[in-house]
Amino acid sequence: MAARGPMSKVELRISCRKLKNRDTMSKSDPCAVLFMETGGTWVEMGRTENVQNCLDPDFAKCYTVEYMFEQVQKVKVAVYDLDNNTPQLGDDDFLGQIECSLGQIVAGRPFMKALEDKKGKPIGESKILIRSEEVKDGGEVAMCTFFARKLENKDFMGKSDPYLEILKQSSDGGWLVVHRTEVVKNNLNPRWRPFQLPLQSLCGGDKTRTVKFDVYDWDSDGSHDIIGGFTTTVQELIDAPTGKEFPCINQEKKAKKKKYENSGYVGVDSFKVQKVASFLEYIYGGMQINFTVGVDFTGSNGDPRQPQSLHYINPYQPNQYQQAIQAVGAVCQDYDTDKLFPALGFGAKLADGQVSHEFAMNFNPQNPYCAGIHGILEAYQNCIIKVQLWGPTNAAPIIYHVARFADAAQREEQAKGAHAYFVLLLLTDGVLTDFDETRKAIVYASGLPMSIIIVGVGSADFSEMNVLDGDDGILKDPTGRPIQRDIVQFVPFRDFQRVSDPVASAVELARHVLAEVPQQVTHYYKMRGLAPRPAAQQQAPPM
Asked: Which fold has domain 287-528?
């Protein structure tokens, strides 16, 4: 009898109450990490966001997991007070954990259990609550833009710092946070950045289901003040004319003051529901992922003949450049039929005495392609002994190199549809010298079918590089032109490094940096209005 696939998928949402406070000057900053047992080993499935200064968090980020009725699927949720941005949990304060089965969570409606220490003993009154909901097919996404007007001022020395929180009602009557906007500082008439939410997350796919909007005044100590809120339905938001406003009601004030009307208004700038194709639908439609590697050959890497060099070729253990190429390339190569990948270098003095920031590692500018990931690694090792490490660290030329091909693919989209997407893996040992030009190149590339993964190699201070990653704000070029979509993921390799297991380090690195690529792919094609090509259009290989 053939093995049956998952019975369905369920969405898990987590709340905690009465967490232990591990910070001396403020409250804990909790994050919940989900593990599932696979082959006798706990495998991390995902993490919630980090909620600042809060002992009773309702995490907005959820997990979607496969549910199989006939199996005991062991689940562990561990809660940590995160004090840094590294992926390792060993240097963060442990707040408690639970172990149970997915069946228990599904049957709990909701499931509640006391948090325990690693020996299985309860930790004070700390509890965890997990709600589950079946994920139904649909693929619809709500594209949202909201603003507010005349909000009540909650700050004595300035104006309120408002953010918007969206909640849906669960089957047990509770309210679940599904999205929080950014905070707009010192503004009583904020306009929040556009965002999108799967309709399943927003209302379980039911457009008549009540959703709740609350506006808060953000405070650095975590004691955010409620300004007010309202309830509505997704259908009402869809039908709302542009600019429709909802009175923002503070229920506590309304109960106390007879003449109270509202605490301002929240308006709908835009609310549209669209059918969004999945990443796999584009893959099934024949879209190829074209993988390119760019390697830093500047002098700051150190003499490759010396073991201290970042480019030193150790026959027993690959260096960080080799590990990153192997791990990230191993994932991307499965989506490219010809397995031919350009491998480029920058920052080296070549045999002709010229310094180049865009050269083929196989020294064939007419054909810089390498056969498979093994071919890239061979070209890299051969290149190391033939070039002189130089400088400066200019990355923009390689970004523009890949962007030229992405631009050509975009020009063919009208005839060929969604057929080609480009992923550039850029490896560098230091902060970029041409930082402004790189910002300009990234903003340009954000309108093309292209993603950029930047991995920092070595021990340099990479804090400035986080500007290129759009997670903490909107990247702009030197003229103020904003990025069209987030296409950059930056990480320092050292955050993933395990000296005892370099293979596991590289695999974890690849998992982290590639996690956003599918969403970046679908965002690009949605921006271009391109649906996947029909799967039937692709010819099956002969049997």
From this structure: Rossmann fold (3.40.50)
